[in-house]
Amino acid sequence: MTALREHIEAVALVDHHAHGCWLAPGDRSRFENALNEANTEPLAAFDSGFDTQLGFAVRARCGPLLGISRHTDADTYWQHRSGIPEPELAERFLQAAQVCDWLVDTGFAAGAAGLDEMAALGAGRVHEVVRLESVAEEAAAAPGDYAAAFDDLLWRRTRNAVATKSILAYRGGFAGDLSDPALSEVAEAAARWRDRGGTRLDDRVLLRYGLHRALRVGKPLQFHVGLGDRDCDLHAANPSHLLDFLRVSGDVPVMLLHCYPYEREAGYLAQAFNNVYLDGGLAVNHLGARSANFIGRLLELAPFRKILYSSDGFGPAELHYLGARLWRAGLAATLARFVDADEWSQADAVRVVDLIAHTNARRVYELG
Amino acid sequence: MTALREHIEAVALVDHHAHGCWLAPGDRSRFENALNEANTEPLAAFDSGFDTQLGFAVRARCGPLLGISRHTDADTYWQHRSGIPEPELAERFLQAAQVCDWLVDTGFAAGAAGLDEMAALGAGRVHEVVRLESVAEEAAAAPGDYAAAFDDLLWRRTRNAVATKSILAYRGGFAGDLSDPALSEVAEAAARWRDRGGTRLDDRVLLRYGLHRALRVGKPLQFHVGLGDRDCDLHAANPSHLLDFLRVSGDVPVMLLHCYPYEREAGYLAQAFNNVYLDGGLAVNHLGARSANFIGRLLELAPFRKILYSSDGFGPAELHYLGARLWRAGLAATLARFVDADEWSQADAVRVVDLIAHTNARRVYELG
Amino acid sequence: MTALREHIEAVALVDHHAHGCWLAPGDRSRFENALNEANTEPLAAFDSGFDTQLGFAVRARCGPLLGISRHTDADTYWQHRSGIPEPELAERFLQAAQVCDWLVDTGFAAGAAGLDEMAALGAGRVHEVVRLESVAEEAAAAPGDYAAAFDDLLWRRTRNAVATKSILAYRGGFAGDLSDPALSEVAEAAARWRDRGGTRLDDRVLLRYGLHRALRVGKPLQFHVGLGDRDCDLHAANPSHLLDFLRVSGDVPVMLLHCYPYEREAGYLAQAFNNVYLDGGLAVNHLGARSANFIGRLLELAPFRKILYSSDGFGPAELHYLGARLWRAGLAATLARFVDADEWSQADAVRVVDLIAHTNARRVYELG
To answer: How far apart are CA C202 and CA C191, in angstroms?
Structure first.
């Protein structure tokens, strides 16, 4: 088993979905709120972002990189963290993640590092993921026909990108019609949206249009699935509602991100469709000491060539590092159980580690 | 680890949702049917309430308090149990639960001890939880304007109570509109309901009215969530359908009870809203030897200051005791795993035990 | 614990839901596609049916019956397998399953052994399960009144059968009205369907008619539940949508098959209704090294007299064997944990093994 654990510790990861980390200084409330994904309001006075699985995992796993021991109390953690400039924290945590390639969603970037800044941290190659809803907002602000503007922008922005991304989960969810709308419908919807200001796209017709144009681009299309903030109706972010869309999605890889608590439904879809993949980013961090159980559930119906790694790190650089740490620990615990029970051989386990860590991602995103 | 286990064994519990236990004698069929939560009919001739996880747990955990050894067969268990008067069983089991405060829902009390009788058992302080649907039935029977009668009754009944409770899950479920109805709608709905007899409230308008009046009372509002008897459409008792209601619920604590099999959705809501809490009462008893796994799932997304303990005991006093026993055992097993893996420190584990056992409940219900 | 494990290894199983195994030769793509349940298209060029939990379990568990060691690589597995005639593989695997009674669904039998051929393998008694949708297609092809033809065919075909089976999950799912339609509606729907060719029944009225006629036959009615191929909308195969149907199903045993990922909902229904049962067939095979966790979940709310065993084997005879092997291993692991923790006695565990292995099935299907 030592060989398996050593392999998992050292394996290079493709983090196929992350955001920028902070580079600018911030106060403790910024940090504590960043430890809560779902709440869109400031934490209540009686609460602390540290008193969560994620908070405990940050103290346990990230403390040592700040020079303090595991489980040091929250005040001390914050004291040490706030004594180090954000850019130095970013370098330290991202380099420690042992990630060879970061696929960065640039669509939600308020206060976070951009692509060039991420690359400058020297922690691996950086690739762009283009958010469809951002392209739509740019198209709304452009003169002339919306559809033409969207198509043109999408083509230009994705030329050097490795994937597109949809946050439909936050804009009404997956349930309901997701067919390709007629151009006349798109024109009408765009006119209405432009009249309303053309921000925060939630028009269903235009969301559908974006998805189907992304299919034509042909690069992998990422979907936010499951847990997120409370703007999202959790039950509408169940990926089984994507079935009709998947039935017409052809060969374009569709990447189901995060998935909790619908990881079993996502695994089913990854088995049912040659072009569907899944990961457990975001959830792994928030589950902390419970993340190994979750990683086990990712290894159920999904074929092993359809599972990827991501952190979904955003903001505190701890998250970019912690995702990798918890993934290595949880995968090791899960696979060791299979091997100990003689259900899997160790050689097979090592092979599956490589598939999830980087091989599948390199194939799907053509990372070379 | 011994210190952690000893702490969990001895910690005082606030049981923030229970019902009265039996004081009057009954036959074996009453007992066996009480071991099945979901079935509203007598058990089939081929079946036995003892051949369930709950039945096995009763024999294993409660037998010793009757003077018989763990796992003694069902017939012997019943023989010993039926030889002891119910009031003595009630005293014995409730005192053994080591509960300092019982929050008792008086809305479903057929054949069970009332508040004074519960208090007289000498097993801890007793506080009242007022069921909204019972208040509605009283208001339907009162003369004059329904809304005024409801408001007046609710104010008087909750003055000395610590919380309100809704069984909307049993009266149509959470899906659909849960906004505050206009008073004219309330008057019309009340007239229709009074014409039908004014019993077993299932009018949606009046249910919604009750919820929003409860928000004005401002005391914690408990919701039955998830498993219950088959009058409830299980899928409609998924708490994610409460999202729109929670979005307007302000600061009033909303307590999600039981939650199985939607404990992950409930945990998400507890993270998403500063005023949402959860427990695993009822489910812990019915899961018996599987309850430790369930308790682990309660410790996922929910912040640790948002998790409470309850038994949901009703009827056999075994249930009031067993809830506590299984909770102590399951929490110990769960936390020991975190500590053994060095994901949590033992000190943190002890602190979280106290939060769930009583600290959170005392804060939310202002128990002093 | 050795006694418990030995008992589970040797206990005779009733496989209460299986299909025929292959007898005719086939190529590797037939085999690999048979290792994927959900995908209705050929596997992608980059994929392999062997790189799944099921594929790993086949290599680990079935290899030794081909004379090769556990975990031998996929190419070698295929090489040895393809060197043995299918009928010999069928005999070898089915006999090794230690199944005393096979209940065979004859409704989906393309390329698979029929009842007589299954019986001729000498691996246990064979009983028929009649698929309602097949009866409907026969009735559509018969002259005269559809309802009369259906009733007559159903009566004749079920006279010697032990159960009926519905694949409503694949024909629109459980959500929506499932009441008994009026005969006039049936006649109209049948006329429309016959005009369309009378194949692949998906008319809701006729599906409902079939269910209610099956209730009158009174033999156990099996439902495909949860995971299947992608023709099925997974969320519509959630058994909680059967609640209204179950409320009128009387005493006729309703058998919920497979259930993943809705096994918790299925367990709730098995507790809520005296006539509802569940198993975990199909899912156990596809979960491989993760199947023990799943088997644990089957042992939650469902009373122990309501749980059965099945493989749902179809095609490769490995599946008929593997279902039994994984069930024995997973049940042993689950129950050993209960007994080790002193939550169950070993004698109780042995008794529950017998209930699930054969006692419940013999009672429900009156196998004698």
So the answer is: 14
